[in-house]
């Protein structure tokens, strides 16, 4: 391997390690809320993911409310449901591009073995944050979330190109 290739490989691992290290990526912060307890759930909202849109397109919540989201992928592609701020979604889209580039997301499939790939410093491409689920076509997953104070929040799919095609919705505070 020549020096330039070695440098690019090391740089890629460094960038990915930083990107997957925590809140600056697809994680969350006090502004968005926190993982909720099932015993605190006040209601359940079913969200269907279709290819490049959600149904419903927005949800209303109260500060401090704990909601169970039942997320169903009715599309033909892998999709994500991620609750976050617009700036966090923008940062997370870069991480999702890396997941595609490394073969983790393969159109309509998720390569779970590649999710475990060591990206350096013990970081992997696992998609296991409490504010997000990643689903193959036909899958259903649940996410329980307690919303914090009113903030600029949305739910979105950050698979490359999906957000830009309109696959996001607003979280409105009552």
TrEMBL record:
Gene3D superfamilies xrefs: Cupredoxins - blue copper proteins (2.60.40.420)
Coiled-coil boundaries: none
Gene Ontology terms, MF aspect: copper ion binding; electron transfer activity
Keywords: Copper, Metal-binding, Signal
Blue (type 1) copper domain sequence ranges: 46-172
Pfam families in the record: Copper-bind
Name used for this protein in its record: Copper-binding protein
């Amino acid at each position: 391997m020549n020096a330039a290739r070695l440098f690019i490989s090391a740089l890629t691992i460094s960038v990915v390690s930083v990107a997957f290290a925590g809140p600056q990526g697809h994680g969350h912060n006090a502004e968005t809320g926190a993982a909720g307890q099932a015993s605190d759930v006040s209601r359940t909202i079913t969200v269907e993911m279709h290819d490049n849109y959600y149904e419903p397109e927005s949800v209303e919540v109260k500060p401090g409310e704990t909601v169970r989201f039942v997320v169903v992928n009715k599309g033909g592609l892998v999709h994500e449901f991620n609750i976050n701020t617009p700036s966090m979604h923008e940062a997370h889209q870069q991480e999702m591009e890396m997941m595609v580039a490394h073969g983790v997301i393969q159109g309509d499939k998720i390569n779970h073995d590649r999710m475990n790939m060591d990206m350096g410093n013990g970081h992997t491409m696992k998609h296991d944050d409490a504010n997000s689920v990643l689903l193959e076509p036909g899958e259903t997953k649940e996410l329980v979330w307690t919303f914090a104070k009113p903030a600029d929040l949305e739910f979105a799919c950050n698979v490359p190109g999906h957000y830009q095609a309109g696959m996001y919705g607003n979280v409105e505070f009552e």
